Each structure stands twice: as C-alpha cells, then as structure tokens.
Amino acid sequence: MKLDPKIPSGPLAEKWTKHRNDIHLLSPNNKRKHKVIVVGTGLAGASAAASLSELGYSVEVFSILDSPRRAHSIAAQGGINAAKNYQNDGDSVWRLFYDTIKGGDYRSREANVYRLAEVSNYIIDQAVAQGVPFGREYGGLLDNRSFGGAQVSRTFYSRGQTGQQLLLGAYQAMMKEVHSGRVKMYNRHEMLDLVLVDGKARGIITRDLVKGTVHRFEADAVILCTGGYGNVFYLSTNAKNSNATAAWRCHKRGAAFANPCFVQIHPTCIPVSGDYQSKLTLMSESLRNDGRVWVPRNKDEKRHPNDIPEEDRYYYLEEKYPSFGNLVPRDVASRSAKMVCDEGLGVGDTGLAVYLDFRDAIKRDSKEVIEAKYGNLFDMYQNITDDNPYEMPMRIFPAVHYTMGGLWVDYNLMSNIPGLFVAGEANFSDHGANRLGASALMQGLSDGYFIVPYTVGNYIADVDLPKVSTEHEAFAEAEDSSKKIMDKLLAVKGNKTVIEFHRELGKIMWDKVGISRSKEGLESAIKEIRALRDEFWENVNVPGDANYYNKYLEFAYRVADYFELAELMAIDALDRGESCGCHLRDEYQTEEGEALRNDKEYAFVSAYEFLGVNGKLETKLHKEQLEFEFVELKQRSYK
Amino acid sequence: MSLMTINLKVWRQKNAETPGKFEDYKLDGVSEHMSFLEMLDVLNENLIKEGKDPVEFDYDCREGICGSCNMVINGRAHGPKHKTAACQLHMRTYNDGDTIVIEPPRAAAFPIIKDLVVDRSAFDRIIEAGGYISVKTGAAPEANLIPVPQDTSNEAFDYATCIGCGGCVAACPNSSAALFTGAKIAHLNSLPQGQPERDKRTVAMVDQMAKEGFGDCSNYAECEAVCPVGISISSIAAMRRDYIKAIF
Amino acid sequence: MPSLIEAFQSQVGRKILTGLTGFLLVFFIIFHLAGNLAIFGEPDAMNSYSQFLHDLGPLLWVARIGLLLIFVIHAYIGISIWINKRKARPQQYKVYSSKGGPSRQGLSSRSMAFTGVVLLIFVVAHINTFALGDMDTVLIDGRETHDIKSLVIDTFQNPIYAFGYTIVMILLGAHLGHGIWSAFTSLTLRSKKASATIYTIGVVVAVLLAVGFLFIPLYIYFGGGCDAALIHCN
Q: What pTM value is reported for the model?
C-alpha cells in the first residue's frame, strides 16, 4: 500500500489556487455521461451531490434514513467558523488555519487545513444565498459568537440550531437538483459494500431497508460521506443510526483507515441517568461563553449548589487556564472534568458531573439576554433533567461526540482506492487529534461544496473508465458477501441481544479507550474486545428475517463491524506512544497533567491496512509523515 | 427512583398490504427518567428475548431535531406535551398503571411501512417542487451584501425550524400538510434572497401538496398545537397571502 | 402561473374562496337579521321592507342569483373538503384527542361539515316556506304587496317551526363560531395577537347573530303571535 498525500508544491496560501488551475476539466456534455455515487446526505453528502449535479454529472445519492434531511449534521447546535473578520478583531484565513492546526495538536496536514480556512468564507456566502437564517445584528448584518479554542469571534450561528439550518440549505440545494432530474435519491438504502473493478471503485452494494432486498449500483466514482464512528462507544451524542459500516467495509476492501484512536469527547453533555440510556445529549459548547464551570472544593459537600458560597466553589478551568478560562478547547475541558471527578469532587447522584453555572451571566446581562442566546438549550436541558437551569446550575459531563479519525484521503480527498472519495467526518483529514468547536460544519460543507466537485472531476478526466456492468463478477461477489454476513448473523439465534453486546462493547471502550488511556488498559481492552466479539458471533440473538424492514438486523451488522473497528482503535491508541489532542496516554503527561506530545517519533498519520480478522484483527500500520513547513510545533498552552 | 408498570396497546402491521391490529403489552420496571422511546427499547429487548418480533418505530437523533420520530400517543401526535417530540417525552409524564395507546401517523399520503414506521417521502417531493432558493455553488454574492433586518431574519428562522416530522399531518383532522408546506414557503419568501422565485415556489409547492393526497386545511390549528418546535399557523396565512400575490 | 380558474381549484385557492364567500354570507346574514327585526317595528315596517326589495326589480334578481352563487360555491367547497378529508385518512385513529393550547379544534370546528349541510337543507326549506309560500296581500302606500309579516307570525305559532328554527339557528352560531375566525385566517391574517382577538370577536358575532335570529320564532311562539307585547299588528 502506498500513501501519497499529493500535496501541491508552492507557498501555503497558493497551493489550492494552483491546484485548481492544474486540475483537468471535463466538457459539459462529457460530464453528463459520468455517474457519481454519493453515500450519505449530511452536510458533506448533500452539498457534494448538489454541487456535482449543478456541474452536470449524473448523481445517485443514498441515505439510510427516510429522508435525506434527517442526517445527523442536523443536530449540530453551536455554529460554523469562517475567517470573515466581520468583527474586526484581527481574524484572517491564516489565524483560522493556525487555530485549527494548533487545536488539532499538530496532527493534521498544513495544506488541507489551510485550504479549509481559505474556503470557509465561501460557505457563509453560499449559505446566506440559500436562505439560511443566521443570527444578525440590529443593522441587518451577520453576527458572530466566540467559541472554544479561539480568541476571536468567528462563529456564525442560527440560534442553537446551526447544523439544522445549514443541512436544510444543502438538502434543499440537493432537492433542487432532484427536481432537475440529474440527482436520483434513494432513501432508506444502506451501503453494504464497495465494488472494485480493476482496482478502482466502480460501484456499491446496498440494502433496501424497507424490502430487505440487496441491490447493485455502478458508477465512475464513489463519494463516501457517511459520518463518524462515535457509536462504537454505544453511548455517544451521535444519532442512533449513525454507523461505520460503509466506511469499515471500504476499509476491508483496501481503503486505509487513519488515526482511528482520535475520538473527541465533548465536555458539555447531559450526564447519564440510568442503564436504559440509549444516547447522550449534547449541550452546545457555546454555553461555555457565559456559563462558568465549577465543582465544590470539598469532597463531602452536601449543600444545594446555590447555597455554596464563592470561596467553596472551585472554578477549575478559570484557575488552571486563566487566559482561556472556560473557553479552553474541548479535549482540555473534558479531561479536566474527568480529573476533578476522579478526585471525588464530581456532583449529582453518580458523582460523574460538574456544574455549568449561569448565575453570574444572568446577573450581568439579565435573564432575557441569556434566554435569547440559549433559550432552546435551556428548555432542552429542563425537559430531560427536570431541573431549571435559570435557577440552578446545569450538571454536565463529557461524552463521545466526534471522531477525527476516518478513512485516509489525499489532498484530493481520495482514498488510496482510486475513485473512492471520502468527505466530511468520514475522512480523517482536517482536525488532527482534536477538532475545534464549529469546525465540523465548516469541514463538511467545505469538502462537499468546494473541494470534492473539483477533485472528482479531475479524477474522472484523468483516468480511463471503461463502462462496467452490474453483471460484472465483482458485483456478484460483493453482493454475495454482504448477504452472507446477514445470513450468518440471523443463523446464530443466541441468547443475548445486539444492544446488550453493544452496551458491553461501549463500556470497554469508554473505560479503557476513552478520555484517558494507558498501555495496560489498552492491552486488556484488546483482549476483552476479542473475547466479546467471539461471544457475539456465537450468542447473538437477531430477531426476524432479512427480507423486510428489520432495524435490529441493521444494528446487528453495524455492531459486528464496530467489534472490528473497536479493536483497531485500541491498537492505534496503544501504538501512539504520546499524548496529543484528545488522545491522552497516562504515561505521557507533563508534570501539570497536560498532554505531552512526542513530535520526533509521532508526527505522523497512522494509516492501517486491513489484512483479516482471525480471532484477532490483523492489520498493518503505514505512516504518513506530517511535514510542517509553515507553522512551528509548540506545546499547546491555553494558560 | 420510582418504577412503574405501563400497559401498552401498540399498532402492529407487517407491511402496507397486510391489515394491522393492536397488541397489548405489559411493561414492568419503567423508570420515570426514561424517555418514551427508551421505554419502547426496553419493550423490544423483552420481545426479542421472548422470540417475538420487536415493534418497529422511526427514530434517529433522539434529541428532538431530526424529525424521525412521529407516533400518535393516546390520540395525540408526539404525546401530551407541547413543543416536545416523542423522543423528548419522558416517562415522568405518566403514572404507574397507565395504559398508553400508540398508533402510527395515519394519512393516505404516509403509507405504513411496518408497525409505527411510515413513508414520509411526500414531504421530500413538496420540497423538491420548489422549497429552495436556486443558487449554484460558487455563485453566491458576499454574505453581508444584502442586509436582512433582524426581525425578518428571526421570523424566517422561526419558520425554518420545522423538523419535517409530519406530526402536523398526523394530528390534522383533514390530514393536511399546510403547516409543513406553509412553514417552508414562509421561511424562504420572507427573505430578500427568496423573492425572485417567490411566486413560482408558492404555486408549485401548494400544487404538490394536493397531488400527494394530503387533505385541505380547515384552520383547526391542531397542527400548531402538536408541532414539536411550535411553528405558528401564521405560516399558513403567509402561504395563502403569497399564493394570492402569485396569481394576481 | 396557473389561470384564475385553476388557482381557485387548488387547496389554497379553495380555502380563500371559502373564506371570501363565507364573509359575504355573513354580511348577508347581518342584513337579513336587520330585515327580520323589522317585525318589531311599526305595523307595516316589515312589509314595506319587503315591498322595497321587490321594487328593486332586476337588481333584486342580480342579488338573488349572486347570493345563490356564493352560497353554492361555499357549500360545494365545504362538501368537497369533507370528502377529501375522508380520502386523506382512510383509516381512523382508535384514540384521538386535541392537544389543546393553540388548537382551535372543538365542537364548532369539528362539526363544520355537519352544521353546513344542515344549513344547506334549511335554506332550501326556508325559501320554500317564506319566499314561495302562499301569502295574502296587503296594501302598503296604496299598493298591493305580500303580507310576509302575517306569514311569519302564523308559521311560528307552529311549535315544529318555532323550535326547528331555534335549533338550526344554534347550529348557525356554531358554524360561525369557527367560521368567522377561519375566514380571517384563510384571508391571510398573520398576526398571532390579532388572531386571538378576532377569534373572540368571531365568537361574539356568532352568538349575537344566532340569538338575534332565534329570538324571533321563540318570541312569537311564546308571546302568542300578534298578542306579543313587542309586535304590532294592524
């Protein structure tokens, strides 16, 4: 396996422009003859499908949900970053680039991240033109808020529903193209396999989730926009149907999986309340703009939080990081919360929570101002917990939220399989070891609107793509192997449900491959994952049949894939003998408990090649060395 | 924490072609902190262990924004609480021993797929008919070129928050999709960017709504009452106003 | 763009027409009530009014045909909405209830089709009784004219008519209780605040009209026709 990132030469600020000028173009009447498959309809998928169709390609789009509008991008709350500098506070493309690469703890590619910052401004233009109702100032111009990991206000927002509004913008743009007839939409269809012909991605196998039937689709290129794999942990802020199956099956067909251990744990989520819990709910990070995070100073504090006087409150973020305070990046905030809870200072029934307090903000700005900013989040909190956050502090705790790792891609967002492109959270590309808040929406839309449409065209123009038929044996083989997995699962007829297995897997992952990791813990996690995986294949109880709508069968094959991916995550976490961003190894910390990077030995992207599963996951590590020409690697400090 | 026993009466239907019927289930050990859907998860775990077919229902984000869940609980779309999607409904709303009847949204335009799962692609086709502003990627002008008054932007946002769950259709005595369609028309038509296509959009979406087999709006306003995000029926009035403007 | 005819066949167009025709019918009803109340005026007031209307000649026919058209459109659309509603939900809920709050669902709104159909039948019967019924003639200003007043007084001595009318007028009130507000909403009333106010005004107007109409038959019946204190017969 050869991993060439194909980064264009030249100065950082000119790479993308130069690359676009060098890209091969297709004439409009030729584009029509080429078919592109887009899997997933979140920000990346919907925007890519709309943009490619506008260019004239024939596009087929697949969503596992009943409507493309339901993709999980819809749940992003806080906002989207862009380097507009509307606030005149010194922002620039360079600063957005720098903050992102620093926030990612220098484990991403300079060229990719710079391009992301560069196109960020166009996303805002595009969204506004589509009718996305961003927050505005009295004068009618766009407003910004500040967000973790940055000292400028560059985040555009639609109250607490920015992801929803941006996704609906992209969805509507795509539906406009469905109307034009160039986009064909397949709802409730799940990709089960990638089909390779002559080493190139030439199609996919899908399952019609309503009828249970398996289908073949051929194309000249496949763009995977299927999101992240946070649901490996069972409990996460991901939607229940978010899954890694499409990406994992591409991996099994030869696509390298990069940085699987980089998982972001979001600091502000509603704590777990019981073992029936099916998912965790995130409270936007923007709350940290006005909320103050604290725990009682004394372990055996029994008083109601409102009765605890100032001197007995430990505002640990403000004390430890005076210059960023409550606005430290997510990884730092999550880790700090875990540390104070490990010390026994946690609050609530479980002791696994910290306070996020708006008392001072309400005193300073009035309840109305706070309500205007966060009203819907406060309502949501109250609805779930039955506590009123206007009157008492919220209780929050970190939860798995986003996966920076994903399928390896080059500068063109193409995987090592020619013709397989990967966009959005599904790729590993831009966030390094930690993603800054309001950057996921930026990356999804940047990939979909402004990068993939160019680079896919370049690929199609560049390579020879003889016509393939879905009768080709590669399609038959892939269809057969997809069906066999389902048949095998249904044949087990064991005693434990899929959810029980998933919950157990999630617990191993949270305890040992979660906020902090150790060599010992990871080694034991790998053993436990293997043992549980063996048990799964012998004792899982999958109800019903494959030939009709069967949600638990879907869960079963997704969980089967998580079992393999989970092992890869632990293997990668074990291999990475440093702490960086969200990856904290207990063995590698500064004296103050900060992540200790090892740039000499680990300034690389881990990219794994799948060799097989035989009791254990057999895998081969390839390293893509990260070159830093333009930024100086520094120990991150938010003090 | 108090645990409850809940009696369920759930609509079971194999597929669109096979007639359905109600099944009764008794569920013990229901915690008041469970969400309504988590309660159904527990029911399904029990059913699977008993070798029975689990109840299919639509869900995804479970935080009230994706619009997947839409079931009719004791005769009300999304259950008894205002501005609350079924996934955000918690069992503390119920008492020990309560009987809860769960039905799918019933409308000819939403054919049943299985049990409580219905096909809502009619909504996609209404959007496809004109629920967008035609701007090609890359062709957009600078974002701050056109100022939009804050009130206008806020109003547009209020309509744009529709989650497309179809609760409005489920609750409407006429099975009308006027709130869904009106919300999108009102969102886009209220913004300066939406003006060029205003007339065309309004007429096309209104026509599509009827083609899909939704009923007429009789101003019951039940849709607003069940809407998980509280979209106002003033959106329907806005749709009518713009329709009149479009034809004269 | 659709033609006007096409536009008024669309769901939105139909609703606008329903609202518009509904409004016109409400205006008509108000005038009609004013005419009816003439029964309490001078002995000849009601018949003079009738004569005045007949003197309009062709204009009266224009008004009658116009009114008929408005009524037919209103009823036709109302019935077709009801039929459409059955088509749009072939299988009913086992349990169904309103969620309250902003909902305007209630006895009045749920029974629009029923009250509408009753009113339709009533109008036919009403025309048959009072416009086409056998009437004596009286002399007003030296000219012969129909003695509608006597016909009214005679008719409502009959309990079936008196109470039948009363029930129908209650149904009319129910129809207007939702109808007046609904017409405003159909004719694009958007403000939430105004909407609540108009709803209340609509209900008040509906009650006043219903009471106004049903007062006459009941008063005649219980008052004993020409013996009633407020009625002045010649």
A: 0.95
